[in-house]
Amino acid sequence: MTGTTTKAATKFYTPNYPRPQFVRSQWLDLNGEWDFSFDDDHAGIAARWMDHFPATHTINVPFTYETAASGIGEETCHPRIWYRKQLVLSPLEGKRTVLHFEGVDYKAVCWVNGGYAGEHEGAYARFSFDITDQLRQDGVNEIVLMVADSDSCLQPRGKQRWAGRNHDSFYVQTTGIWKSVWLEHVHATRLDSVKMTPDINRQMLRLDYSLQGLNEAQDLRLETEITFQGERVNKLSLPVDRASMTVEVSMMGGINGPWLQNLWSPGNPNLFDIEFVLYAGEQEIDRVGSYFGMRNISIKGGQILLNNLPLYQRLILDQGYWTDSHLTPPSEEALIQDIEAILEMGYNGLRKHMKVEDARFLYWCDVKGVLVWSEMAAAYEYNDEALERFTGEWLEVVRQQYNHPCIITWVPFNESWGVQNILHDVRQQTFTEGIYYLTKSIDPYRPVITNDGWEHTVSDILTLHDYVERGEALYETYKDKDSITGSSGTYNEWKFAFAEGYKYKGQPIIISEYGGIAFKSEHGWGYGHQVDSEEAFLERFGSLTRAIQAIPFISGYCYTQVTDVQDEVNGLMTADREPKVPLVRIREINLGRGM
């Protein structure tokens, strides 16, 4: 396996900075040791633990109590838990202090020095609280966080178990803080976000600015500078008189050489640096560094196009679990190691399965040129409550991940999870259509797969899952395009490609799950019969992969999966990232060579 590196290709990269697409200089990492208590009796609110915290443990944030990395390692479900962090922190004159949580599962309520700071529901989206008014001028400040979770299948939970034990492909639950906690000092008037939309056909970049704390008495000016490999591409200065504004920027100025050489793609992941500086009169009040890639994704004539050229996707399923830290990456280096292993195996992308990954992971996919399908964690029951919970959090995720060039596809639903009656149920069909169009209303530029695997409603790509063991059988099933795209029969003997009332409209077709081959083991499972040697593994892997590659109308595939996950031992690497077969052999098959 290649060695890892943290050398980045963007100007404003800061190691371990939790939000690499919106970088400020004044920040404080709050990961590390926190006080911790279980609250199985739900006594904390009435007893005002936010004022008098009865710590029973220490925990290593951002690892959840269920993990060994947390220092606790208790896998029993505890539906209410509390955290406390004490730190010396004084307010800075003229600044606001904002506390950021990258991910807390599931409902978080925060107090600072006993004062209510805010709350957020949802495990996968980041959120923030302005805690300036709760801070003490001198001495120790105290942050207290209560987290309520449950085993409810109405909340998006992804691969988290709900029966008190691992079952099927569902694993130990995740409760509480599982991504970075940090704070930054900012001016009251500042940039809140910038939505960056590349348009390679017009050679333009659209910037949608959003500002916070706008004061009409201020004389505000926003300067934006774009550079490429250290050379200025464009610089503009805008008067600011409203909280949101849009501008289009030419991307041709100052770029040497053919324009197409500067686009983002796998193998050529060019990134532009961009800096935003906000002035009040002549005083700088905010400075943010970021980056973007110029690329587009489109569909034409049944083909997926990247930068107007046909794209064949060689993807691998990635659930993002580690032995001692579960859903939380043990380090930024661990994220890089996974990405480099995926590239070493000849894949040009991945499907991040049932998880909204750390923003640093997406950063390194941007830098290294790895295509990503971003997928929402599923709920497993359907009613009005589940609909509302899912919709709000999914839209948060899409907005937060929008600027990453590596993300080329949105996947809100998988295998009818949470919409289990979609084949016949008009309500569930309409729900998936609504999510499709809501996603498109935020991002009309990326494909949306409405129900990955089968029973699609409205969807930009037709994706199919099939865990047949032999390539010959797989080829026989899929060689006739009409037989799998028609609605009169099942494509793999038990699932329809489309829900009732929907039909094939010429979409690209991808086999988005297959394989899942496991070596013989008494302590886990894979798909089909287990194999007992490297050669048997590679022969079966090659048989299946070559069969897909031989079908001309299929636009790509996604192999299950990159690593073992707890009881599921069908990875190309173990859970500790040890290759089961030489990665170069996998690469040879993926690239159309080898056995």
TrEMBL record:
<dbReference type="Pfam" id="PF02836">
    <property type="entry name" value="Glyco_hydro_2_C"/>
</dbReference>
<feature type="domain" description="Glycosyl hydrolases family 2 sugar binding">
    <location>
        <begin position="29"/>
        <end position="183"/>
    </location>
</feature>
<comment type="similarity">
    <text>Belongs to the glycosyl hydrolase 2 family.</text>
</comment>
<feature type="domain" description="Glycoside hydrolase family 2 catalytic">
    <location>
        <begin position="298"/>
        <end position="588"/>
    </location>
</feature>
<dbReference type="Pfam" id="PF00703">
    <property type="entry name" value="Glyco_hydro_2"/>
</dbReference>
<dbReference type="InterPro" id="IPR006102">
    <property type="entry name" value="Ig-like_GH2"/>
</dbReference>
<dbReference type="InterPro" id="IPR036156">
    <property type="entry name" value="Beta-gal/glucu_dom_sf"/>
</dbReference>
<keyword id="KW-0378">Hydrolase</keyword>
<keyword id="KW-0326">Glycosidase</keyword>
<dbReference type="InterPro" id="IPR006103">
    <property type="entry name" value="Glyco_hydro_2_cat"/>
</dbReference>
<dbReference type="Pfam" id="PF02837">
    <property type="entry name" value="Glyco_hydro_2_N"/>
</dbReference>
<dbReference type="InterPro" id="IPR008979">
    <property type="entry name" value="Galactose-bd-like_sf"/>
</dbReference>
<protein>
    <submittedName>
        <fullName>Beta-galactosidase/beta-glucuronidase</fullName>
    </submittedName>
</protein>
<feature type="domain" description="Glycoside hydrolase family 2 immunoglobulin-like beta-sandwich">
    <location>
        <begin position="189"/>
        <end position="295"/>
    </location>
</feature>
<dbReference type="InterPro" id="IPR006104">
    <property type="entry name" value="Glyco_hydro_2_N"/>
</dbReference>
<dbReference type="InterPro" id="IPR051913">
    <property type="entry name" value="GH2_Domain-Containing"/>
</dbReference>
<dbReference type="InterPro" id="IPR017853">
    <property type="entry name" value="GH"/>
</dbReference>
<dbReference type="InterPro" id="IPR013783">
    <property type="entry name" value="Ig-like_fold"/>
</dbReference>
